[in-house]
Amino acid sequence: MWQELLIAFALLLIIEGIMPFLYPQRWQRMVEVLAQMDPSTMRKAGLASMVLGLVLLYVVR
């Protein structure tokens, strides 16, 4: 089980690194927009992302 978790974490790091590597200026602007976002809106977006991930994981498995 630990090996699968480490693989998932490695894939997360790879996917997260794609945008700053390919489009550094766009990524900086996106981070600036996120920094100005209301915390409750960001929390709702994070919850939606987690729920979508759980649904996708359930469908795939």
TrEMBL record:
Keywords in alphabetical order: Membrane, Transmembrane, Transmembrane helix
Q: What is the lineage of its organism?
A: Bacteria, Pseudomonadati, Pseudomonadota, Gammaproteobacteria, Halospina
Keyword Transcription found: no
Pfam assignment, any one: DUF2065
Q: Which superkingdom, per the lineage?
A: Bacteria
- Where do transmembrane segments lie in this chain? 6-23, 44-60
Listed name of the protein: DUF2065 domain-containing protein
InterPro entries, per this entry? DUF2065
